[in-house]
Fold this sequence. Notes:
The protein is α/β, with parallel strands linked by helices. Helix content is 38%, strand content 12%.
Amino acid sequence: MISVSKLLCGGVAEGDGLRYDAADEADVEQIREERQQRPVVVWNVTKGCNLACTHCYAEAEAERAPGELTTAEGKGLLDDLAEYGAPVVLFSGGEPLVREDLTELVAHAADRGIRPVLSTNGTLITPGRAQELQDAGLAYAGVSVDGLPERNDAFRGREGAFDAAVEGIEACLDAGLKTGLRYTVTESNRADLEGVVDLLHDVGLDRFCFYHLDYGGRGAGIRDVDLSPERRREAVESVCDLTREYHRQGEEIETLLVGNYCDAAFLVEYARQQLGDGVADRVRRYLEVNGGDPTGERVADIDYQGNVHLTQFWQGYSLGNVRDRPFGAIWDDESSPLLAKLRERERHLTGRCADCRYQDVCRGASRLRALAVHGDPFAPDPQCYLTPEERGVDAGGADGPGRHVDAD
């Protein structure tokens, strides 16, 4: 995650220590005082879901699938993650609220010192359920909304999903639960981005996470509605402009970009152009600490059956199963050639990523998208939108000044 509000507006958040080793700059309680050494773990607690989203990376289904980790196994997993030192567990799905024991699992994570957070479509959150989760120690609920009502409901496969999600957001806020938006930006819903922020800010949200489409699960099947590099650049610039405008008005919203570390390079360029060299240099220093794309290092995924994955989006590749070995033993085992190469990916990146001057803050961005498009996990990310000049490449060749370069 890249915090636009911190980098461009000097905002503070509870994740500053975890992401930027900048806990001493924040006057709010921190998740961790130092940059994380162990991965944030996404746990897809179920494959069942009450919606049918077109971009679902987990390919969730209406009915819960066999083989879910039981309540006892889930608690054992949380004990294992606590022992290993995972700072955060993100309960995801499917839709995690279809599990009757979710509150019990959240409470167990909190009791073991792991920060429990939730990724949900929001439609099953009632006032009573929100209060239960808050009482259990849930630290944050991220509610997915992907457009204003018509577009969101088309994305989610159910009429009324938008209104139900807003009701869920309101229930969380009324319970005193920190809540934010999760928004996956595509060509289909780009036009609604600013309107959704305005509307949900009026509802009471002050945290907005904008995700780039990753090509996992059903997300791989809608690549044709992904943004072009030019349109992606415009969308990211719009998030930067929107954030700064809210802060100028005294509304200190938190905005984050997720899933494409090309954004890190762009923020440095944006800061240099809009705010000057001093701010740009400061932004870059923070991003160097952050360390670029975290796949296989600072983020991990465990699916509903206990299989361990490089990220939640890359569920076609498993490193092992927590029913067979502890999570830490799986994560520290670099006998997987792919895992070992990802952890030293700078040696293996090809094409425009190999000599980009922003490699240290991006690290090639999504290796899954590279694999999906090029058949090579170390090829360039097709979502890169930097110009040759920004990448530090002589632009006098065939591509011409300021034009986007093809992925290969």
